Amino acid sequence: MAGSAPQGRTERRGSGELESEILAALWATERALTPADIQAEIGGGLAYNTVHTILKRLYDKGLVLRDADGRRGAYRPLKNAAELTAEAMHKALDRGPDPIATLRQFVTRLDAEQEKALRALLDDRAA
């Protein structure tokens, strides 16, 4: 089949996708994880060195911390998923020429539950 990985090989993932998968593995637990822990969690034939390289990139970006509690080479996330996503949303708003238009577009795509939650948050903030 065209475009699929040969048998016995895994599909190649981009760096951003691997970063997201590694962060998801870290967010799924309360403890720091070693590259080997993450490699086992993610699976898919990912090489240990690849996991270690992505963790170093995440560390250099300030997204993970190395555990200083004695587990050599263990990592944990600096921010939770909601914090990281909110930060990305703020950066996106700051980059655009018209943040109000961007917000308008964002809000028009919310489903009913998300809209209700947003209204409640804004009402709480105004109170």
UniProtKB/TrEMBL annotation:
Keywords: DNA-binding, Transcription, Transcription regulation. Coiled coil: none annotated. It holds the Pfam family Penicillinase_R. The keyword DNA-binding applies. It comes from the Bacteria. The keyword Transcription applies. Transmembrane segments: none annotated. InterPro entries: ArsR-like_HTH (IPR011991), BlaI_family (IPR005650), WH-like_DNA-bd_sf (IPR036388), WH_DNA-bd_sf (IPR036390). Belongs to the BlaI transcriptional regulatory family. This is Transcriptional regulator.
